[in-house]
Amino acid sequence: MKIAIISDTHDNLDIIRETIEIIENKNVEKIVHCGDLVSPFSAKLFKNVEPEFHYIEGNNDGETNLKQLIEEFGQYYQHVAEFKIKGINIAAYHGTDEKIVNALAKSGEYNYVFRGHTHQKSDKEIDKARVINPGGIKIPNNNQEGYSFAILDLNNGNLKYHDL
Predict the structure, then answer these.
(1) What whole-number distance in Å separates Cα of residue 107 and Cα of residue 61?
(2) Distance (Å, rounded) from C-alpha 145 to C-alpha 134?
(3) Per-residue model confidence (pLDDT) at position 64
(4) What does the buried/exposed string (b/e) look like for 55-67 if buried means 16 or more CB atoms within 10 Å of the residue's CB?
(5) pLDDT at position 138, please?
(6) Are 110 and 104 in contact, with CB atoms under 8 Å apart?
(7) Full-prediction pTM beyond 0.90?
(8) Closest Cα partner for 95 from 50, 126, 140, 64?
(9) What are the residues facing 115 on neighbouring strands?
(10) DSSP strand E in 88-153: where?
(11) Residue 42: helix, strand or coil by DSSP?
(12) Which of 27, 29, 60, 153 has its CA 20 to 30 Å from the CA of residue 85?
């Protein structure tokens, strides 16, 4: 099973459209967006995509209709999402508090922790959990060249970043 991990798209419609186009051609079964979509007009782009859509609220998601809209076609989580897929335990969190990211990873309950917020892609081990950040739109003072998201194949653990 392939999971697309997305975060920090911040209303960039062109990037969202291009991301969806790639996802739809990669046999992805689940999309996990780790927050900061920001507005309902951005969320609408995910409404008719095939993969199951899961959204974890970010610190810039202040639009009151965002939750209601996403719940029409996907799952909305305010803090931490938990998934169990084929015996693999996954947590997803926006990532605003590093102590929470580390606590999830060190809890021993999750094989994977997906997170966002920093806009920097990373793939690292914390204790026995693999912590994956797909990146996000470019922000000042980081080394990222542009937007990135990731696709994880749970069958073999392969992670591929897609840079736009």
Answers:
(1) 27
(2) 13
(3) 78
(4) bbbbebbebeebb
(5) 79
(6) yes
(7) yes
(8) 126
(9) 93
(10) 88-93, 112-115, 122-126, 129-133, 148-153
(11) helix
(12) 60
